[in-house]
Every structure is written in structure tokens, then in C-alpha cells.
Amino acid sequence: MNNFTIGIDVGGTKTAYGLFDSNKKLIFKNKVPTDPNLDGQTFFDEMTSLNISFIWHY
What we know:
Blueprint: E1 5-10, E2 14-20, E3 26-33, H1 40-55
Antiparallel strand pairs: 1-2, 2-3
């Protein structure tokens, strides 16, 4: 079983996220614009769906 870690950096203009393997090597990264009009729950829901969509490739 592989162990992965997801890192998320939320900024005022963009949200960057990446997937790291068990050796802390970055194996995937992406960024999306941060929507300042979203409430916390909606933002979290969108980030969760992004994470699920890219992690299935690994």
C-alpha cells in the first residue's frame, strides 16, 4: 500500500496543491484561482473534489 500526502497552499489569488509520495517527493502539482466569494464550506467542498479527481491517477 502506498502512502501519499496532499499539500494545499491557499492564497488570496491562487490555491496551489500537490501530491507527495512516502519519500516526500512531489509527484503532482497544480494551481487554481482562489474565488474570494466562496464561503468556507463551499471552498472546502471544491478542494475536496479537486483532490479526489487527481489522486485517482496514483
